[in-house]
């Protein structure tokens, strides 16, 4: 299995170019915005990149290696104190490591010998495997207090967190949300916050298998492979028609910014379609889950969200992306945002089958295997 | 144009070492690194594209922070970072022989920093916006003089002026003493129209406000505009336009079906020249609050703008400068007949359309007593705290409101 990345690379999260020194910011445009998928650099701790799990924040990319001597690498360099960890998550300021007997949070901005926060845990051997940010009895939040308890009634199976909200998937396939809701990201039909986990009633009766959160949007996949989206659509991250996006694209075209690449697929005729577009319904906030038809025949296998974009993998091995694209994070070899899911042709053209996707705030990482010749 | 960069760089610190970048630890080290990168680029030789790119990273990141949580709770540090992003972007735009369009972009960027950011480096964005404005004025002077003959005339609006019933008219008084205003109106919280108290305003004398004057003082400045008939409508939205753009589209162009309103905006903080044309009413000193806590808002729009019936948590002096407005006032004692929205967001707003009430849904409304008036230029309406008010402009209108306690 190989990993490819595209999008924001100012900190060398995807690859380290010639001009880029590890850990420093680059100012060369091609270095900062990787708009064509690039294979990730090998981690120093392993020569064969199997069993690598990617975790990403805005400026960092962490690789979690679970085979043999498990450890975490940050941008290719092994983290000494991570040996033996079972799971990891990375934020802009902290690296959180889950071990079988404890959780540790390391402050990435300081060079310290001890974690800035830790707590002991007891994992039952029969219980669910560690699944950050979920920990026995609760979860690890992005800001203090780090440990928050969760009611056992929820039977939490997986949890997606953004700065403002949380989406929880229970063992029975029910979805609960809480946090701020001013952009409809809680899916209860309004804009009000929820302090406690509240079931998303619109999805009741339809078991879900996967949940993900972006900065202001939420996404989940049903057992049957359907994708549901809700929240803010200002850059088309819901895959629904976005007025803000169309306006921004018009402005971009009139300014003719030097750094913007022309998308070969965008026909010039689109600009003057004002008459037709007037009839179209634009959605800036979707406060209830909406079913998103990505491609007529395919089921969605997994999904991940950046702050303002979404990436989904089908069971047939295709990767679709949509939303904000200014940094190349959609992988369509342009810097153009899109409110319509589009397949990342790079992988299909190279006969690569995408099997997983993980998004950082402004970039996307896809795991691929070679397509088997039928 | 080469002058422009030398004027801007004269406003900036001499070198990298003297350029302050201090933030609390909410701003992560990776972001600080990016800021330092831009600072370094400001004083070294690199490409315009690199500078723009790095400034944009700062803007995009801080924009996300500004949109996280409620505006009130956004850490001021992120607003400062946003302002720095604007500063670096402006520097990148103006460094190398900027085109006229790039100068306008730089102006808009300064305004974005002033509107959404927080003051940095002794309000340097305000300093730079003045430099950019004078640059734009110099280069458009020649064009202006030749186009003078083609000045578009505003379609003369003959407003349908509602007839005010005498028994329902808001009382009027000319230049009351502080004491008599306090005793007769402020303490008992009674609305009144004050006549003669803004006669001395430059806006009504030396610099009479008009479309042409506003264009010359603030034409290329970017301001927030509300689009839609009233803020309780589904179609209502907010957008950013230059003052010229707003005037062209929503004031002069009567083909535009939608109503645009430059409403509830602290324009006078953004454009100091306009602040000098108005004065704080003396009567504000009768309150408990600080002069610095008085919020001054501009309300500029065509005929037909509507502020639905609502109440505010402070005393209000509404000064009319251009045009006229129909205003209706209801006492807070009659709130039970005014059907306020239940939601937290709109609980200060009535559900009733005052000039076209749904008598089936809101039967009690007709029984609520009210006062009404047509406010004319030169007049100031005192709206006591929590007093319900409904306002419709009858023609092109510019009002200035003072919220005080």
Automatic annotation (TrEMBL), chain A:
The lineage of its organism: Eukaryota, Metazoa, Chordata, Craniata, Vertebrata. Residues 249-265 have a biased composition (Polar residues). It comes from Larimichthys crocea (Large yellow croaker). This is RCC1 domain-containing protein 1. It comes from the Eukaryota. RCC repeats lie at residues 173-224, 225-316, 317-370. Residues 249-278 are annotated as: Disordered. InterPro entries: RCC1/BLIP-II (IPR009091), RCC1_domain-containing (IPR052830), Reg_chr_condens (IPR000408).
From TrEMBL, chain B:
It is found in: Nucleus. SUPFAM superfamilies: Clavaminate synthase-like (SSF51197). Keywords: Biological rhythms, Cell cycle, Chromatin regulator, Dioxygenase, Iron, Metal-binding, Methyltransferase, Nucleus, Oxidoreductase, Transcription, Transcription regulation, Transferase. Its EC number is 1.14.11.27. Its cofactor is Fe(2+). The keyword Plastid does not apply. PANTHER family: BIFUNCTIONAL PEPTIDASE AND ARGINYL-HYDROXYLASE JMJD5, HYPOXIA-INDUCIBLE FACTOR 1 ALPHA INHIBITOR-RELATED. This is Lysine-specific demethylase 8.
